[in-house]
Design a protein that fits this description.
four-stranded antiparallel sheet; 1 helix; 30 strands; 4% helix; single chain
């Protein structure tokens, strides 16, 4: 894999300062961590050289029937779990399940604080605004989800739908005070056509359609600073709309099915699917300086560490009919990736504020299970 030139220079200086030789190859050993009901195989590097930038696993904590979706701080996480204080779901297909509600969970005391509950609804996918003041989440039973924004101080929320948009079929944080996503067309806020263009929703409850993308059936819509990145269901090439000039240009990046802006808004991770393989690339905001991070049959669970040094992702590969899957972290300081867990498919991931812990959550068709991976970085920035 190609290394980012800036990080190569930083790495070389750190190596000289540490007077460390880092050219020896490292053997990887598998370590089995036994947990109730499941064994987790993790990868650790043996015989590390002193001062060498590297990543290893210290321990993994499991949380059954729990979806951990974000971190409020180092001790508190946002979780979704079944709420047995409510009546079971009314729909016959779901009548064996309780509604899922949102909580703050204290990793030290193991205590839950209820944030939001609602009869006959699964609440989940909750992510905090960068400043932790608001929570974006969805609610659904069967069919498309409805998105909501909640004030973390008052615990009051509003749905992203109204008279000026049919509703939201996607939603992501654009900054501390704005959510961006694709909108349904028509008057119904659920189940309408996916051709309502894009919207911006303020944390005050104001929802504004983007006239420049009106009536487009958008597949991806994300925002970084004053630019909006998008493509459509019929054209998977990545486009950019400059909100200042209203100009639309192509970044000449094709087959795009995912975009993940960096925390500082200067770079982004882009997922591509050309029909034969899937690829994750890192590039600048203008589409330049492209670097390939991973290739395989499936790529998911992508997330940035807060300091942008680490990139988490899940990768599935198929060789001679045999498939393998695992969770990886890519270290931009060294340009190397490390497999930290095996047999993980299609997870969601999120980093703790310190970047020392990584959560991954999986849906097994019946329930969510989450794990926290405690990482050790041999050389901190």
């Amino acid at each position: 894999m190609k290394k980012n030139k800036v990080f190569k220079i930083v790495f070389a200086l750190m190596v000289l300062l540490a007077i460390t030789a880092c050219n020896a190859e490292k053997d990887r050993d598998r370590v089995i961590i036994k947990e109730p009901g499941k064994n987790i195989t993790v990868i650790e590097d043996a015989d590390k050289e002193v001062g060498e930038p590297n990543v290893s696993v210290e321990k993994i904590d499991q949380y059954k029937n729990l979806q951990i979706s974000d971190w409020f701080n180092e001790n508190l996480v946002i979780v979704s779990k079944e709420n047995e204080s409510l009546e079971k779901m009314k729909l016959e297909e779901l009548s064996d399940s309780y509604p899922r509600s949102l909580y703050l969970y204290n990793l030290n005391t193991k205590e839950y604080k209820l944030l939001k509950e609602q009869e006959n609804l699964f609440l989940g996918g909750a992510t905090l605004s960068p400043d932790k003041k608001y929570l974006l989440y969805y609610g659904n039973s069967l069919g498309d989800p409805v998105y909501y924004v909640m004030n973390m101080d008052t615990l009051e929320s509003f749905g992203i739908h109204g008279s000026n948009i049919g509703g939201a079929y996607s939603a992501n944080w654009a900054d501390n005070e704005t959510v961006i996503g694709g909108a349904y067309s028509g008057g119904a806020y659920s189940g309408g056509a996916y051709s309502g263009g894009a919207y911006l929703a303020s944390t005050t409850g104001a929802i504004t359609p983007l006239d420049e993308l009106k009536d487009k059936a958008l597949f991806i819509v994300r925002k970084m600073r004053d630019k909006i990145y998008y493509n459509t269901n019929s054209d998977t090439s990545l486009m950019v709309l400059d909100l200042a000039t209203k100009e639309k240009t192509s970044l000449n990046i094709n087959y795009v099915y995912g975009v993940f802006p960096a925390p500082d808004g200067n770079q982004m991770l882009v997922l591509q699917d050309d029909g034969s393989k899937r690829t994750m690339i890192l590039c600048d905001a203008d589409g330049g300086s492209i670097e390939t991070i991973a290739e395989g049959a499936e790529i998911s669970g992508v997330s940035w560490s807060p300091d942008q040094r680490m990139i988490a992702y899940s990768l599935k590969t198929v060789i001679n009919g045999t498939s393998t899957s695992g969770l990886y972290v890519y270290d931009r300081l060294t340009g190397e990736d490390t497999q930290i867990v095996v047999d993980v498919e299609n997870p969601t991931t999120c980093w703790s504020p310190s970047g020392r812990e990584l959560v991954y959550s999986e849906w097994n068709g019946i329930q969510y299970n989450s794990s926290i991976v405690y990482l050790k970085q041999q050389l901190q920035k």
